[in-house]
From TrEMBL, chain A:
Lineage: Bacteria, Bacillati, Actinomycetota, Actinomycetes, Streptosporangiales
Keywords annotated in UniProt: Amino-acid transport, Cell membrane, Membrane, Transmembrane, Transmembrane helix, Transport
Membrane topology: Multi-pass membrane protein
Presence of the UniProt keyword Protease in the record: no
Family: Belongs to the binding-protein-dependent transport system permease family. LivHM subfamily.
Stated name of the protein: Branched-chain amino acid transport system permease protein
One Pfam family named in its UniProt record: BPD_transp_2
Record's subcellular location: Cell membrane
PANTHER family: ABC TRANSPORTER PERMEASE PROTEIN (PTHR11795:SF451), BRANCHED-CHAIN AMINO ACID TRANSPORT SYSTEM PERMEASE PROTEIN LIVH (PTHR11795)
TrEMBL record, chain B:
A Gene Ontology molecular function term of the record: branched-chain amino acid transmembrane transporter activity
GO cellular component annotations of the record: plasma membrane
Its membrane topology: Multi-pass membrane protein
Keywords: Cell membrane, Membrane, Transmembrane, Transmembrane helix
Descriptive protein name: Branched-chain amino acid ABC transporter permease
InterPro entries recorded: ABC_transp_permease (IPR001851), LivM-like (IPR043428)
Superkingdom, taxonomy of origin: Bacteria
Membrane-crossing segments per the record: 29-45, 51-70, 103-124, 131-148, 190-209, 241-265, 277-299, 326-346
Keyword Membrane listed: yes
Subcellular localization(s) per the UniProt record: Cell membrane
Source organism of the structure: Actinomadura livida
CDD domains the UniProt entry points to: TM_PBP1_LivM_like (cd06581)
Amino acid sequence: MTLFLQLGFQGIALGLVYGLIALGFVIMFKGSHTFNFAHGQFVAIGAYVVLVLLPRMPYVLAFIGAVAITVGLALVVERLLIRGLIGRSVTVVVLATLGISTMLHNAVLMVWGVGSHDSVGPVGAGTTKVGSVVLPNSALATVAVSVVVLAAVAWFFQRTRHGLALRATASSQEAALAQGIDVGRMFALSWALAAFLAVTASIFLASFPRVVSPSIGDLALIAIPAIVIGGMDSLMGAVVGGLVVGLTQVLGSNYLSDIGGGRLHEVLPYVLMLLVLLVRPYGLFGSRSIERV
Amino acid sequence: MSVLTSPPAPRDAATPAPRAQGLLTRGRIGVLLWIAAMVVLPLVLRSELWLGIGILTLIVGVGALGMQVITGLAGQISLGHAFFMGIGAYSSAWLGADKGLPWWLWLPAAGLVAATAGALVAPVAVRIRGLYLAVATLALVFIGLYAWETWTSLSGGVNGRPAAPVLFGDQDLSLGIMAGDQVILDAFQAWWYFALAILLVVMLLTHNLKRSRLGRAFMAVRDKDVAAAVVGVPVTQTKTVAFVISSFFAGISGALLVSYMGYFTPSQWHLMLSVDFIAMIVIGGMGTVSGALLGALFVRAMPEVVNHASGFLPFVRKGTSTDGGITGPLLSGFLYGLVIVLILLFEPNGIRALLLRAWRRLPAPLGSSRERRKTS
């Protein structure tokens, strides 16, 4: 039972990180109708920038600097490479973001190489004991910060002018234009918000015992099953999907280690995703209308 | 639909391409000229780099035509091409190398096994479309990678395994074709002609498919599946058939690819391979045979050329490094991604449209431009 609780907590921590990444995907998808396969590379770049800034300044400043740089990059990519593809077919947009992902991935390798670096988590390797359950501090920090950030995002969407404008744009760009909302600016805002979530997720994805390495970009792709499980246009679904994927991976890595070469937990989220697609193609929380024949 | 998401005119695949004007599609004469050129090329081309690129282009051209069927014609975006190619590759290696069957059995068998896998996946895939289909097929790639790496008795694990050789009698194609002591075709030429022959068969199949009842059904489903259903096209069945045909070509292409390389590892059936194939048809030109081939040439040749040329650039490091620095493969990867995005932005209809335009602007033999002659 103790083991189950420990694993469950770590699963929730990892799931919340996936949830943050998945939320970024969904916000970009709803805000600018672009499913950004390059989002994983934003996560990787965020982690690397924190890594570079960390020796030179306090943690909070390094984080803010990384957010500024990654948001800047996301805005440049959106304005220069994505905005021109508005209205093109899904195939074209998917290929474009895959192309951007290739570019960014190779750029990361050019700047920082293929090697692994240190962790960049806000807390180190310590543990905290609650009853008989031993919890790593990094997981505690992950859960605490993720919950705060998710609450802030929810507040932003529900209680602010820009959040309202973003929701209006997502539901109908034409109607939003008619209400005087600058839709182009909303595209940029959704990408900036997603980049901020990517950096937040990156410091926990590269938190002890995980480290900063080029594979972070691929690791972030596991958020895709999370989105599909939750429903591609549901903010709530992204977080729930992330939790499902995180718990599946952590619990699977322990309880299924004897089956299928001990790596079954790596593909389990994808299998789960196919099952969800088979039963509910629009995901658990998605709206029934989208992309359904 | 809204102001910003609806284009002023359907620019992508919806507009029918102008016919009988292409470099490769100028009727039968154009095709015959192209075939003649492809037959002569390996006899005069003496660069092993370019012969290698050419053979790989011919082989992946088969897979690109498969991609063209599912995405270009039937409009179903699939990221699962690498998965089906992997299935073809492993079936061919099992039948050809482990069981010792001849190539004329393992090659079609590789296609059939991949097609069966396509038929098994189709029930899930036909229920969804657009992005959902893209990510569902993405899952296939990752599940496939896991299967190849775990099923070590078949795949040899991360170390890889040898592929099936192509034997004509007792002559191995990878050693060249000999008559007595005399070399008739060296290894490059032999593989070139073998791959060309298979590509020509697949090209003919795709071309005829496009003009058949089934091909028109594909395009009807692509343009608007609801409208297709209204006019009596069985949508689910049509999509399933598209998946099966596409997987069949992918399986053949995968089997040829590993047979040419001789040795292969599970990691090469990664998502990047699928991306290459989408890039081929979108960059080359959606929905056309010549577009798929142009795209295949571009995707195969471009990284090699950059890699080769980067040896002469002063800021490019030689060899690999773990702590960063610009190396040839990284530079070519970066430029590959950049060129994909730039072509999508500035030439929506791909290289084929670019070449067609350049062709029409060429001055015609009698002084008037071809475009003018056409309109008069």
